[in-house]
């Protein structure tokens, strides 16, 4: 690494860039400015350019700090001709043009931005320090003392330059490294004016501190600034990135040293001319533990936040349960009153479930489709209100919090809860006031009873925030189907809570909702039990299986959709579900085909916009891909395009899509269209928590690596009236026989330790700082005590035994049984 680096030398705007396309001009106005990023769209009056642009004004886009209108800037980049945006200048970097000449600098320093600095003083500063004075002063504020001004003038100039140019200089540097606007904003927020220095000295620090900075990106920067292949920063970042990937990809909350080290080589060992230093890698693993970037407990290696979250869930569960008050209330009498008022008859298991919910501070209710979960939720709400003499009329709680809170992971699931109970329901994110920032805690919630539905979808991080926000004294009911797909994020919270044996629970098995000869629910239960139905290929009233090969699947689905449309099924009624996006029978292909049938183009006059090869028309069914709490829409919500606004001045970046969701209407500018996609066909994960009148389910060998019983079970249970399965019956059978393995999590153990603590003398440390590399030492000498030569976690940390002893020149890949897929 170079011994001395000027943080503004790489990258910089200088004569080396003179031959690159540039535009010098005065900013007329800012058309668009990202709320949480530096991305801007500017209208610039052209003063000079080396491009073939001949018009008076040009649109300039890019990442910029504070841009002053009526100020001239020099933009370096390229002219682009976007098929929708039209011609514009895409800036990679920029600087104030007025500050590159002595006259411009004098005028700048004598402006209102520097009170008390007149033209003569400004001229003295420029003559003494030169035209690069801004960079000099920002990098070393003491430089201003060379001019001979008084201390007040010195401070005015330093403060003014920092306020006006500090962020700008950093953004210029970050642009040079190719960081997008959102990442640039996050980097500047974290490191402030030291951002470029951090990148120059250890770009891998970004991997540890900034979300969405990839190891590959840091590696590319490191190669430019001379960071060593086996530097501590590189090895640390490789280990952290690998552990994060393992958690996200597999849904596990922990890994082990063998798996971690083996997988880390897949991203670290990129240069065949160099070799990873095994001993340094083992040392950095220990350093990460010491620095609390990762935690190790009983040989299990955790990301810090996942380790903490599982303990927090257990601790908060104990806090809530310990508040249980003794009661002599006759719940069964109340339950029968609710039963009579609703004119229904509960069976014994339903009465037991409602009674248990009223008796316990936390209660778990699980069951498959048609077992009466919704009926019981209603019974719990009404019985709780009767017991506590509460009104369920929301209009009577103008000044006080409504006592019953209902929530679910998705907007559609929350809407279903509200429709079935008649009282408001929200997404969990909305309930907690979360805006998508992973680091924020949820707001404390207020009420007496909380019911969460679709719990199998809730991951470790979200449930931690929920449990922390629940006040002591509130009753909590967790409802879901344990046999559905686990959460997309790490953990299997609902399954672990059920297995823990410390939280009261009831599992419903009796099917109630199977009237009118419905066979879908029965099919779902057979799948759950691992049975291949004898009637699978029979044409039933509510389901059928159309056998065909992969090349025929799309054509068959097109025919089914067209026929359904003829029978007055709408796009809202019909949902195609598939587990993969790419391929002949993938989500992308199916979306285009179904859109052409359900919402075909109606002529050249019809409004239509295109984004990333997807065409959107009014009436299109679309899917929200990210959480946007500020708009009350969340990942997985399905809406309908109800408006398209095309800018009259052909400024296509101002085009808008207006989408109506169940509870709100949202307007998206083109810059936000990456939050949407067509929803005629979605993944099974995205459909979880929703029901559709007709589900069309392709099942082909192409999906083989995704075919698991809980995936098929979840897909089938999305259908409320019609289920059309299309494809290969052998793949269907394979799906039923393939049971996914449980994720590697520790929540069950944490609950057991918190609820059933061992005596102090026997209780192990909750935070075990030891780590093993799974690398065995040489055999001990015969006359020595064997345990002295066994590689243990304690001996590694105390440096009694080198974890790499006898392993010179050997890589973990050389002795691992198998490489991680």
TrEMBL record:
It is an enzyme of class 5 (isomerase). GO terms for molecular function: 5'-3' DNA helicase activity; ATP binding; ATP hydrolysis activity; DNA binding; single-stranded DNA helicase activity. GO terms for biological process: DNA recombination. ATP binds at residues 370-374. It comes from the Bacteria. The keyword Isomerase applies. Its EC number is 5.6.2.3. InterPro entries: AAA+_ATPase, Coronavir_polyprotein_1ab, P-loop_NTPase, RecD2, RecD2-like_HHH, RecD2_N_OB, RecD2_SH13, UvrD-like_helicase_C. One of its GO terms (cellular component) is exodeoxyribonuclease V complex. Keywords: ATP-binding, DNA-binding, Helicase, Hydrolase, Isomerase, Nucleotide-binding. Residues 359-516 form the AAA+ ATPase domain. It catalyses: ATP + H2O = ADP + phosphate + H(+). NCBIfam families: recD_rel. HAMAP family: RecD2. DNA-dependent ATPase and ATP-dependent 5'-3' DNA helicase. Has no activity on blunt DNA or DNA with 3'-overhangs, requires at least 10 bases of 5'-ssDNA for helicase activity. This is ATP-dependent RecD2 DNA helicase. The lineage of its organism: Bacteria, Bacillati, Bacillota, Bacilli, Lactobacillales. The gene is recD2.
